[in-house]
Amino acid sequence: MKTSFRAAGWAAALAVVIFTGCAGLGSMEKEIETLGLEASPEPLILRGDQVELEISGKFPPKYFAKKVSIEATPILSWEGGSASFDAQGFQGEDVAGNADVVSFENGKSFTYTSSIPYDPAMEDAGELAVAISGSKGSKSASFDPYVIGSGVITTPLWVRSDDQFILVPDNFERVLTYTQQATLNYLVNSDNVRNSELRDEDWKALLELINLSTTADSVTLTGARIEAFASPEGEISLNDNLAFERAVSASEAFARAARKKDLSLEDNFFANVPKGEDWNGFKTLMKASNIPDKDLILRVLEMYTDNNKREEEIRNIAQTYKIIADDILPQLRRSQLVVSYDVEGYTDAELMDLCKTNPDALTIEELLFAATLFESMNDKLEVYQNAARVHADDFRGYNNAGYCLMQMGRETQAKELLNQALAVERNKAVVNNVAAIKRREGDVDGAMKLLNEASGAGDEVNYNKGIILIQKGDYSAAISNMGRNTTVNLALAKLLNDDANGAKTVLDNSGDESAVASYIHAIACARLGDGAGAKRHLTDALTKDGSLRDKAERDLEFRDVREAIGM
C-alpha cells in the first residue's frame, strides 16, 4: 500500500471540514462540503491487482484551528465487507506531533494518492467514503463517513485467456534431391576411359542408380556435372584441351551406360566443366604427403603465380620430382562426375494411411506433414503423438501434440507434453507455449520471464505479453504488443486506455460473436454516451448468456446510461 501527498496533503483538507476556523468539532463536520473533495477516478477502477485512489480538495484559510489534529481514512465498502486505504493525520500550527501542518491563515490545497490490494469481494463495490476523527485539546469526536465515490469498476477482469500457442511447422519436401559421385582416372596424355575404371565401386553405384531410375517411378535423374582436370605438367594449352576431352569422354561413358538401360537423357543433361591443370589439387595432395622437400615445393607455389615457372622450379628438384610424378600427378588426371537425381515421396493418401498404420516407416518431416492433412483435431493429435513416440529426440511431436490438446481444452495433458518438448529442446516456440500455461495457472511473473526468453518466436509471444500487461495495468504497452490482432483483449486494452472508439473499431472487425465481446462493446458505447448502442450490444450479450444480467445490473460502467438500457 502506497500513499503520497502533493501541496500539503489531503488530510489537511479533511481537517478543515471538521474543524472550520476555531469553532467546535461539530461545526467542522457541518462544513465538510466546503472542501470540494473529489475522488479520481470516480468510480474507482481496478488497475493490475490494485484499486488506486486519488483525492483532491482545498482547505480554506482560517478553517483549521491551531490546536486541532485529525486522522482521516478513506474506506471502500460493499455488502458484507469493507477495506481501508491508508490513514493520514493532519495538525494545526500549535499541535506537537508528526502530522502534516496546515497554516491557519493560508489554508492549503492537497492531493492524496493511495491504493489497496484488490479482493474479488470488491467487484462493483457500492461506496467510497472518508471516516474522520479529531481532537482539540481534551475534546475528541468521530464523524459520520463522508461519501465521495460510488465504488469500483472491475472491467479489467474481462481479460480473456486466449493465449496464443505456436504449432511448429514441418520441413517436408515431397521431392528430395540427392547426388551420386564417381571419379574416372586417366593415363598421362590420354582421354580414354579405361575398362578398369568402369569396374570401380563408385562407377558401379552410378550404374545402380541408372537401373533404379528405370524401374522406380519415384526416382528421376536430373543432370550431371563433370569437372575434368589435367596434371600440371607440359604445355598449358595441351592440358586445357586434354581436360576438355576427358570431360567429353566421361559424359559419353555415362550416356552409353544409360542407353544400355533404355534410359534417354535430355540434351542439356550434362554440364561439362574442364578445369585444365589442377594446381589446387596438387597443393592439397602435397600438403597431405610426406614427400621430401614438401615445404620447399609449397613455398614455390606461394612465390610464383606463373604456372610454367612453377613447373620449371619443381622439376629442378630432380629426385623429389620423380616421387611427385609417381605418387601425386596420376591422382590429378581425372574426371569427377556428380549425378543429381530426385526422389518423389509418398502421396498424400499414402501418408495419411502410413502415419496411422505404420508410423515407424515415416520420417519426422513426413509425420508432421501428414498431421496437417487431417481436419479433425483428434486425428492430428494421434499423428503428432505417433511422431513423438517414433522420433522421441525431436521436440516438435511433443509440442504439436500439446498444441492440439490445448485446442481441445485438455490443459493438464497439454502441459505434460509441452514440458516434455522443453526437456528435449529449449526451443523458443515451446518456451512460449509453456509460458502461456504458466500464466493461465496464475504465475504471471514467471510467464513474462519465459516470454522474454521466447522473444522472436512469432507474434504469438508479443500477444501473450499483451495479456499479462493488461493484467498488470499497463494498457498502452499491451496495445503495442498485441499489434494488429482483432481480438476482444485488444479491444479491452484500448477501452482501458481511454480509447473507447478504438475498442469499438476492433470489435467491429473481430468477427467475435461471443457474449463477452458484445458486453465489452456495450461498455465502450456507454463510455461514449451512446445509450442506444449500449442497449443494443448489452441485449445481445444477455441473449447469448443470461448469467451476465446480474453483473450488468451492478456494473458501474452503465451508471450514466441506466435509463437507456432499461436497468
User: Taking Cα atoms only, what radius of gyration do you get, to the nearest Å?
Assistant: 42 Å
Name the shape in a single word. elongated
Q: How many structural units, i.e. domains?
A: 4
- Strand portion, in percent? 15-25%
Beginning-to-end CA distance, first to last residue: 35 Å
**CATH class placement of the largest domain:** Alpha Beta
Please identify which CATH superfamily of the largest domain we are dealing with.
OmpA-like domain
Count of individual helical segments: 24
Compile the SSE list and pairings:
Elements: E1 3-7, H1 10-18, H2 25-30, E2 38-40, E3 44-47, E4 50-59, E5 68-78, E6 81-84, E7 88-91, E8 100-101, E9 108-117, E10 127-136, E11 139-142, E12 146-149, E13 152-153, E14 175-185, H3 201-215, E15 219-230, H4 236-260, E16 270-277, H5 279-288, H6 294-303, H7 307-315, H8 318-327, H9 329-332, E17 334-344, H10 348-357, H11 364-372, H12 377-390, H13 395-407, H14 411-424, H15 428-440, H16 444-453, H17 459-472, H18 475-482, H19 488-496, H20 500-510, H21 515-527, H22 531-544, H23 549-554, H24 562-565
Parallel strand pairs: 3-13, 7-8, 15-16
Antiparallel strand pairs: 1-9, 2-4, 3-4, 4-9, 5-6, 5-7, 5-10, 10-11, 10-12, 14-17, 15-17
Helix pairs in contact: 10-11, 11-12, 12-13, 13-14, 14-15, 15-16, 15-17, 16-17, 17-18, 18-19, 19-20, 19-21, 20-21, 21-22
Describe it for me?
The protein is of the alpha+beta class and about 575 residues long. It folds into four domains: about 5-155, Immunoglobulin-like; about 175-345, 60s Ribosomal Protein L30, Chain: A; about 345-470, Serine Threonine Protein Phosphatase 5, Tetratricopeptide repeat (Alpha Horseshoe); about 485-565, Serine Threonine Protein Phosphatase 5, Tetratricopeptide repeat (Alpha Horseshoe). Helices cover about 45% and strands about 20% of the residues. It is built from 24 helices and 17 strands. The strands form three sheets. Strands 5, 6, 7, 8, 10, 11 and 12 form a seven-stranded mixed β-sheet that branches. Strands 1, 2, 3, 4, 9 and 13 form a six-stranded mixed β-sheet that branches. Helix 16 (about 445-455) packs antiparallel against helix 17 and helix 18 packs antiparallel against helix 19. Residues about 1-25 have low confidence and may be disordered.
